[in-house]
Specification:
alpha+beta; Sortase, Chain: A; about 25% strand; about 240 residues; single chain; 8-stranded mixed beta barrel
């Protein structure tokens, strides 16, 4: 075999490999985002249709004024088991991430579920209930929902609605970095959090570093306020 043929064959192989790499990068950076956006929009549309048809549970009773961590009222939200695996049940808004940032929250954290939106950890508290309502989302790929996760700061609102009630949580501390095996971060009273007694909490989790998954970033929040959707958007979404 001539040297010229070897060089040409090697060059063609490099071009082929380069093309495959470029296509893969396009798929990861662009196409998964397109698919995720379509999937998330579909979940939001499904929720809006359900809510418009009145396919809702009764509104959760808000905690006593000035005491969001008090014991649950008689009409506390149903247990998380009431959520159907892989199905949407709420919409989350994080103003820190942009005025147009809104993502559906689905039950479960399976790979296929997180391609459609954010995922509620099965077994953690229901939205607004005493305990730890815990939610996971991709940092990168599939729409990059938590791309700006490190920007969260104490006092930032995280607003979630189930179609009957607005729940406004407030971030308690800057995102905390840990390892994937540190499952105590989604305990009812999350370990290593600022919280020391039972309350109505929210935990958000995502991967770290930005394009890896060796660690996790955690943000904890405490329920600050609730109001019926019939009263319009909460103040956190109007400012």
């Amino acid at each position: 075999m001539s040297v010229r043929l070897v060089v040409r064959s090697f060059s063609e192989l490099c071009i082929t490999v380069g093309t495959v790499v470029v296509l893969f990068v396009v798929y990861v950076l662009y196409w998964t985002g397109v698919k995720a956006a379509d999937a998330a929009d579909g979940q939001l549309d499904r929720l809006q249709e359900q809510w418009s048809q009145g396919a809702l549970r009764p509104p959760a009773a808000p905690p006593a004024a000035g005491a969001p961590d008090a014991a649950p009222a008689p009409k506390d939200p149903p247990p998380a088991a009431a959520y159907r695996p892989g199905k949407p049940f709420a919409v989350m808004y994080v103003p820190r991430f942009g005025a147009d940032w809104d993502w559906p929250v689905l039950e479960g954290t399976a790979v296929g579920t997180l391609k459609k939106g954010l995922g509620h950890y099965a077994g953690t508290a229901a939205l607004g209930a005493v305990g730890n309502f815990s939610v996971a989302g991709h940092r990168r790929t599939y729409g990059d929902p938590f791309k700006d996760f490190p920007r969260l700061r104490p006092g930032d609102p995280v607003v979630v609605t189930d179609g009957t009630t607005w729940f406004t949580y407030r971030i308690a501390r800057k995102p905390f970095k840990t390892v994937p095996t540190d499952v105590g971060v989604v305990d009812p009273v999350p370990k290593k959090s600022p919280f020391e007694q039972p309350g109505r909490y929210l935990t958000l989790t995502t991967c770290d570093p930005e394009w890896g998954s060796s660690h996790r970033l955690i943000a904890w929040a405490r329920l600050d306020a609730t109001q019926p959707v019939t009263q319009g958007k909460p103040e956190a979404l109007r400012s």
